[in-house]
Design brief:
Elements: H1 11-15, H2 18-30, H3 36-50, H4 67-83, H5 86-92, H6 97-122
Helix pairs in contact: 3-4, 4-6
Amino acid sequence: MREKGIPTNGIKSSLLLVPRIVHLLYCLVKDPRVPFKKKAMLAGGLFYFLLPFDLVPESSMPHLGLVDDVIVLIRVLRKMLVDTDPGIIDQHWRGTYRELEWVKHVIKRGDDAIINTWNKVLGNDAQLKTVKT
């Protein structure tokens, strides 16, 4: 039996949480308790996502072009969710507690996959650090 508030059919259900995530990020940017450095990091990640110039251009590699954008967004979102006071996040989240936990779980798994892939490709000398959860 599925628990209420946790998407069960993968990407489609997860995408339904995007408006809540956007609302959360908007509120975090407006909240004076969130440090400017975190807001600047978020703005930089969103700017990179929207910028037409990328490390991997979408025009030359259509299927791989969004990969760098997604990597930046996942890293920024995880850092934002981990480094912000949980009470502030809870105050601004407009979904259920289980949905928020699902969002954190998905972002953590994506970020861990990025880190593991990065470390395998570059070897042990260039370790990318995980964000503590």
